[in-house]
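During the second half of the funding period, the structural biology subgroup turned its attention to how the target accommodates small molecules. The most pressing case was iron/sulfur cluster, which had performed well in the primary screen but for which no bound structure existed. We therefore specified the complex as follows and requested a full 3D prediction, including the ligand pose.
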Amino acid sequence: MELKIEWSRTRRDLFLKCPRAWYLRYGYPTYSSGINEEQTSRRPWDLMLRAMKEILVERLEDLQDGKQWSPLLLEHQMKYSLQKQINQTPNGIKKRYFEALLRYANHRFALLWRCRIIRQLEQKKYACWYVLDRTESVSIGNQRIYASPDLAVLIQNKWHLIRFDMQGAPKKSTDECEANMMVLWAKNRDGFPQSESSFRLHTIGWRRGFWHTETFQPTEHSVEQSYKLLEYDCKAMLEVHRYGHSNLAFLPLATTEKTCESCSFRLRCPGGVNLVIARQEQTLLELEQQFASSKT
Ligand code: SF4
């Protein structure tokens, strides 16, 4: 049976940074214990962002049900969610660090809640809107795509698909392509139109101290280009998967040492000890293998 590659922005980001880490996290069949390890070795900062996202979704869902959160409830929920995330780490963190993270989370969240679209939803400006589950996937061909927006809001006959990126990242040339994946996702779900012009896309991400919104108008051509990128990614992932299956030692390592520093597999990967030496050793291994096969 042919392998179904799962595509999401997180998977793609990791694949581009380090194919070996991608394989160990998502493609290695006997590495189920690695998932727990991955969860518990996340950096406290990432856990703080995860807690914020959890609170954002909960608060939006309550808003949809007509429930408003008081500042005290928000503070309590944020603290609880952050504590829950930190409890997953083996050694926890110091109280002062926890309090600093909590302050960051509350500050960023307060700014996020002032975003235009959220204010409009609070003011009940739109009658039809949904909070969506980012873990819901759609199947396209032989790929499973995780590209759900966080919010879908119907504004004057157009569906505005909105994604919140908690992890701040500089602008990339592929931002529009990645945003278009939300259209691919929606077109493969019941209840959304098929025409690209019926959508408008927004990504709201933290950059340089502010929440910035990027807006894109998808077209048939731009969505088609995005699908080609997705197919290209999935093909490359499939190749790495096959390669890793036959010999883990030859899987490409990280492009920069920075990736290794926060990698949950660093303790059992030569790249985690010294990426430069690990790369040299890998090249030698490859040469040895080429030499051996040329003699047979
Ligand atoms: S330690 Fe570095 S090279 Fe090894 S899997 Fe992690 S990111 Fe990749």
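Two results from this model are relevant to the next phase. The longest strand covers residues 199-207. Residues 18, 20-21, 253-254, 259-260, 263, 265-266, 269, 271-272 surround iron/sulfur cluster (CB under 6 Å).
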